[in-house]
Design brief:
Shape: elongated
Helix content: 55-70%
Order of helices and strands: HHHH
Structural class: mainly alpha
Radius of gyration: 16 Å
Number of helices: 4
Number of strands: 0
Length: 132
């Protein structure tokens, strides 16, 4: 492997990890908002449980780099869906990480899905899906 290839692969890995962290963070924010909105309703306990679960997944990812197969597949589905529906349908992260330039959703989806596959997660090949 050349140094250039190695650098590119390291950059792609870091980029995919940032996309995953952003996705998990968005899920946590959404779960927390739903839990707050459900306070006092019959769905309060379930909403609180889902918010705790989202928090636990994000913590496990940050501390151990572990997603679990279901979460990895949900992330792949989310980044591909975002690509298919365009940027306008998904809110941007509150504060973008400036160490990564902004790429289109297709590139983010391709890099993230490929990185997840490289890590051994069972990520399908999407029909008409993202390619590097």
């Amino acid at each position: 492997m050349t140094d250039d290839f190695q650098q590119r692969e390291e950059w792609r890995a870091a980029f995919a990890k940032q996309v995953i962290t952003d996705c998990l963070g968005q899920w946590l924010r959404s779960a927390n908002e739903a839990a707050v909105a459900a306070v006092g309703s019959e769905h309060a306990a379930e909403s609180a449980r889902l918010a705790r679960q989202a928090k636990d997944i994000l913590i496990r990812w940050r501390e151990k780099g572990d997603l679990g197969g279901d979460t990895a597949a949900r992330i792949a589905d989310a980044v591909v869906e975002r690509m298919e529906h365009g940027e306008k349908s998904s809110p941007l992260p509150e504060k973008a990480d400036e160490s990564f330039p902004s790429f289109d959703s297709g590139y983010r989806a391709a890099v993230t899905c490929q990185w997840l596959r490289d890590q051994g997660y069972d990520i399908p090949t999407y029909l008409g899906g993202p390619e590097l």
